[in-house]
Amino acid sequence: MAEKKSGATFESIMHCLKNRQFSPVYILMGEEAYFIDRIADYIAEHVLADEEKDFNQTVVFGSDVTAAQVADMARRYPMMAEQQVIIVKEAQNIKAWDALEKYVENPMPTTILVICHKNGSIDKRKKIVAKAEAMGTVFESKKKRDGELPAFIEGYLKTKGATIDHKSAQMIADHIGADLSRMASELDKVIISLPENNKHVTPDVVEEQVGVSKEFNGFELKTAIINRDVFKANQIVKYFDRNPKSGSIFAFLPLLFNYFQNLMVAYYAPNKSNESEVAKFLELKSAWGVRDYIVGMRNYPAVKTMQIIAKMREIDAKTKGLDNPNTSVGDLMKELIFFILH
Fold first, then answer.
1. Alpha-carbon distance 329 to 211, whole Å?
2. End-to-end distance of the chain based on CA atoms, in angstroms?
3. Which of 19, 107, 235, 275 is deepest in the core (most CB within 10 A)?
4. How far is CA 248 from CA 45, 204, 230, 258, 319, in A?
């Protein structure tokens, strides 16, 4: 068994699992189900040999069991195996944790108990979290921010032996958003399409396999706005107006709001002309990203940036029907882009 790993990361947990260093208790919790499922599925598939699973691996759902029942299962001894695995899915449906709190305080060394709590985290004031941190592994799975998605895409493809350029990663990120399960499924489809002798994802591949136009997409719209390219931005907006499935204000308003919000922050950087200083100030890892803000500060004064952010809030409210009797979503998008660029 492994030592306690409180505050563990997905990477550190997977490293330990692959080295067969197991904790007696895992609490996997948070808003992002993807990482919770990846860890639980790995444990289910790799801890026990196939012939050991029938008697020593149990998967239950929180709506079907009580904490006391789970604790009783965990206290059993394995049959003809060194360990048993108990996986509790949808553990957020368990009403009271008292019995499990007592178990986690003194877990069975021959049991690996995995508690999967989705759609939020367990209140960290509850004793079960502190006790699990002392005796096992606690992992909080947080939603990826929009700016973190390209790095996730690059990292995922790297594990599959493929590479991707920055534009292609951003195109996929903008199109799919922070649904990592769907993202992984789309990336797997892309990987399968690649020839054996060239595992590199390009905008052409993204256009063909994911269905995102390489010329008219969120990445290109954002780039056109950053560069204050009125003609290109209007071309893309007109394309979206004719092809609403390719893009809408609902997809791009958060993307643009995040950019201009960060642009406003960039104005407070101690040295606004130094890329590395601005990147550090904005906590950016990509050189591509920081250049967008350097260019943005040249094209959008701070006062204009504040006005754009206010306009976005107004447009967002109108898309939800507030103070908007009949303006269409397409017209709202045109109104916003015109305001930004003029």
1. 22
2. 63
3. 107
4. 41, 22, 18, 16, 11
- Residues 140-160 as b/e (b if ≥16 CB within 10 A, e otherwise) read bbeebebbebbebbbebbeee
Contact by Cβ (8 Å): 22, 16: yes
Q: Which of 145, 137, 157 has the alpha carbon at shortest distance from 31? A: 145
Entry pTM? 0.75
Taking the mean position of all CA atoms in its chain, how far away is CA 71? 32
**Do 336 and 311 form a contact (C-beta atoms < 8 A)?**
yes
pLDDT for res 1: 47
pLDDT at 337: 93
pLDDT under 70: residue ranges of the chain: 1-7, 285-288
pLDDT of residue 7: 63
Question: Looking at beta carbons, which pairs linking 175-181 to residues 24 or more positions away fall under 8 Å?
Answer: 175/210, 175/211, 175/212, 175/217, 175/218, 175/251, 176/210, 177/146, 177/149, 177/251, 178/143, 178/144, 178/145, 178/146, 178/149, 180/32, 180/34, 180/35, 180/144, 180/152, 181/33, 181/34, 181/37
Phi/psi of residue 117, nearest 5 degrees? -110, 105
- Which of the 8 DSSP states describes residue 83? -
Pairing of strands 111-118, 25-30: parallel
Q: Which of 3, 40, 46, 43 is nearest to 23 (CA)?
A: 3
List phi, psi (to 5°) of 41: -65, -40
pLDDT at residue number 286: 66
Whole-angstrom CA distances from 91 to 60, 66, 135, 185, 283 are 9, 10, 19, 25, 34
Report whether 62 contacts 96 (CB < 8 A).
no
Distance CA 46, CA 39 (A): 11
Judge whether 122 and 131 are in contact, CB under 8 Å: no
DSSP single-letter state for residue 21: -
What single string gives the DSSP state of each residue in 156-200?
HHHHTT-EE-HHHHHHHHHHH-S-HHHHHHHHHHHHHHS-TT--E
Query: Which pair of tokens denotes residue 144?
Result: 């990826």
Distance CA 201, CA 191 (A): 8
